[in-house]
Amino acid sequence: MTTELLSRKADFPGMVTADGKPWHYLDTAATAQKPQAVVDAMTRALGRDYATVHRGVYSRSAEMTLGYEAARRRIAAFVGGQEDEIVFTRGATEAINLVAATWGVANLKKGDRILLSTLEHHSNIVPWQMLREKTGVEIDVCPLTEDGRIDIEAASRIVGKRHKLIALAHVSNVLGSKLDVAAAADLARSVDAKLLLDGCQAVPRLKVDVEALGCDFYVFSAHKLYGPTGIGALWAKKDILDAMPPYQGGGSMIDRVTFERTTWADAPTRFEAGTPAITEAIAFAAAADYVDSIGIEAIEAHEERLTAMARDELAKINSLRLYGPEDSAGIISFTLGDIHPHDLGTILDEENVAIRAGHHCAQPLMDHLGVPATARASFALYSDEDDIAALLRGIERTMRIFGS
Ligand code: PMP
């Protein structure tokens, strides 16, 4: 399987350095490299197929509209939803802001509570704090288990009838820990709260079926799924989406406008004001096609294998501290003695190894771990053993430079 996936490295034009050397890209959790198929789909959509959607009476625009709506169907199918349950957004961040600003404002009031967890990305914290400012809703934080998973048992002791929303990362962008979604969904159901899953790191690595997961909202970004930046999706159950007020006002999201009164288009169009990210939507669908051509299960197995291998090797380094559970999904965070992760990242860059160093937009998690930053290596379908070997060589060199 590895050999088959390895040959896919050639599908990614970005996987070499400017002077043609192999680039050991271990920052996919920040954003994934793009396969040529996605670049080609985007180029075609921006070039010979380009026109606006939803308005033109001429054939090119009608075809582009079909392409844009086909992309919606494609993304819905990719996560097991229906096409009219997918809202295209700028990304996961906008999708969460949309839920907070529409569903949240319409349904939550002072005294209601939201449950988040210690490991959430800022994009699944700050929009709820902004909603707290507007509505007086209160926020509770679910602690983590010793090995860095969201502790649903602890959550069940926190959650009560006043909780209207539980919003959790499906996979942590720092620790790679996978949420026990079934337990989270049971808990949400038991108090009649909605469950929002931040699927940014799960969609590129695990089979996601929103119906089977039992959530109410699911958000993700195309650029982590080998697609373009500037687009992502909110999936929400149709009855919830239908009842949500609009997000932004403008063209396309209306039914009828007069100066006295405006009526809204049906969902999902109601939530897509303005000319949408047409070319990005088409390239997003091409990314889903590409991932399906390999098989998400094969990608998951490949990343699992690489993660286990890397964790085993990293654990042999005395001064290195690993964070997160053994079975983390393709993402490993660590610190190396008292060497700052930024220094490590800079030295690794000289070896053509790209990792992320910092707080990973998860400052509350850094506070919990008692560190200002971690180094993070994350894998993708194009990662291989050579990348791990290069990472280990770079770590050894860094330790030599720092005399540790
Ligand atoms: N949630 C998680 C878990 C993430 O990893 C990220 C991206 N780092 C986001 C949300 C935000 O995604 P975006 O910046 O694409 O909106």
UniProtKB/TrEMBL annotation:
Pfam families with a match to the protein in the record: Aminotran_5 (PF00266)
Catalytic activity entry: (sulfur carrier)-H + L-cysteine = (sulfur carrier)-SH + L-alanine
Official protein name in the record: Cysteine desulfurase
Family that this chain belongs to: Belongs to the class-V pyridoxal-phosphate-dependent aminotransferase family. Csd subfamily.
GO BP annotations, alphabetical order: cysteine metabolic process
Domain of life: Bacteria
One Gene Ontology MF term: pyridoxal phosphate binding
Biological function: Catalyzes the removal of elemental sulfur and selenium atoms from L-cysteine, L-cystine, L-selenocysteine, and L-selenocystine to produce L-alanine.
Domain Aminotransferase class V: 24-391
Key words of the record: Pyridoxal phosphate, Transferase
Taxon lineage: Bacteria, Pseudomonadati, Pseudomonadota, Alphaproteobacteria, Sphingomonadales
EC numbers for this chain: 2.8.1.7
